Amino acid sequence: MTLPSLRLKANADRRLRAGHLWVYSNEVDTAATPLAGFAAGDQAILEAAGGKPLGIVGVSPNNLICARLLSRDLKHSLDKSLLVHRIQVALSLRERLFDQPCYRLIYGDSDLLPGLVVDRFYDHLVVQLASATMERNKDAVLEALVQVLKPRGVLWKNDSSARDAEGLERYVDTAFGVVPEWVALEENGVKFEAPVLQGQKTGWFYDHRMNRARLAPYVKGKRVLDLFSYIGGWGVQAAAFGASEVFCVDASAFALDGVERNAALNGVAEKMTCVEGDAFEAMKELKNAEERFDVVITDPPAFIKRKKDLKNGEAAYRRLNETAMRLLNKDGILVSASCSMHLEEDHLQNILLGSARHLDRNIQLLERGAQGPDHPVHPAIPETRYIKSLTCRILPNS
Which residues form the RlmI-like PUA domain (predicted)? Predict the structure, then answer.
């Protein structure tokens, strides 16, 4: 296959030579290689300003990130063969790390497959295609996954907003075999079922696996509040780890049905109380009712989706964590999590410190958590690191 060229402006190759995979539209020499000459999903040979080839890219001419490096070897464009190889490399890491086949199998750029996310639930796969290049090669993606993993079912969960920037339609569809509405998984020895068809994202959030595992020593025999609980990833594990009582708060009745479902799976239903409603309103009502907890977990959706949301988002994290601290007993544990890539860990730490001081409390930072190793960070791409989790002890100022 003969590929067209996409040429960069002078010095625009420095970031790519340092390991990055993205090309921005203002870095392209559009006089030599007009972006208008490409269709979304085309592959091209990326060239430095002097004409030296840098690798093969997938092109999205109408996006700010107009190209992503697929291979630095000109012999390997994106096809089934390359996909099989990259999937096998990713699989070897996950099989080394986890004793059950439940994990994020492919994490986009970090696994050198930009625009592709695959979550594995035993023998079911949920796949997100976030780039025009991956969408165009979806048949090859499916064939490669089936060849390597031999799943019972594969679901296209292509309903994310990331597709909008690529000019792609949103859809959810069974790609192969049979995919039930709820699929089984295991995390930290606790059994779950995830609603892959109707649930958020792929139906489950494997990224906090290691942080949830660290709950065990803090929750045994304790009263726990899980805010933004979704289907109980934190709360049900807290109960399974020996918590005496767990309150799960979520705005979605469907999600709370999942909490009850997963609590029953693990024989801890009698420990669980589900509260449907806005987390901030629920915290206000719990405080007015003089409810207090030994451990409060705050794992909200991203309050900061874009840089311009930073100020309002940080204020929301401050309000959330300060209110959560008010619900803690005198020697309480706060687990404060964030999935906002734009919120730096030091900023979250400062928010917690400011909240504690405002309430005249002392704070000890006990543990720092990040995304698990099935979400490996690409060192050249800060956007691949987004999960933060700070476990803190909140004490009276005495």
Answer: 6-72
Q: What is the token pair recorded at 75?
A: 């012999």
CB neighbour list of residue 57: distance below 8 Å, 6 or more residues apart: 6, 23, 43, 44, 45, 46, 67, 68, 69, 70
Alpha helices in the chain (DSSP H): 14-17, 80-97, 132-136, 138-149, 209-213, 216-219, 235-240, 253-265, 279-288, 310-326, 345-358
- DSSP code of residue 207: G
Q: Which of 266, 274, 271 is nearest to 248 (CA)?
A: 274
| Longest alpha-carbon distance in the chain | 73
Sign of the dihedral through C-alpha 346, 209, 259, 184: positive
Helices first, then strands: H and E counts in the chain: 11, 19
* Cα–Cα distance measured from residue 67 to residue 139, given in angstroms and rounded to the nearest whole number: 21
| Cα 240 → chain centroid | 24
Q: What is the pLDDT of residues 200-218, one digit of tens each?
A: 999 999 999 999 999 999 9
Give me the count of residues in the chain.
Answer: 398
What the block records as the tokens of 70 is 């697929």
Summarised one tens digit per residue, pLDDT across range 67-111 is 999 999 999 999 999 999 999 999 999 999 999 999 999 999 999
Calpha distance 92→330 (Å, rounded): 46
Is the overall model pTM greater than 0.85, yes or no? yes
119-174: per-residue pLDDT in tens? Answer: 999 999 999 999 999 999 999 999 999 999 999 999 999 999 889 989 999 999 99
**Integer CA distances (angstroms), 9 to 17, 39, 103, 150, in order:** 14, 21, 40, 44
Cα-based distances in Å from 120 to 13, 126, 127, 159? 35, 7, 9, 18
Domains of the chain: 5-71 (2.30.130.10), 80-180 (3.30.750.80), 207-396 (3.40.50.150)
CA–CA distance, 389 with 348 (Å, rounded to integer): 9
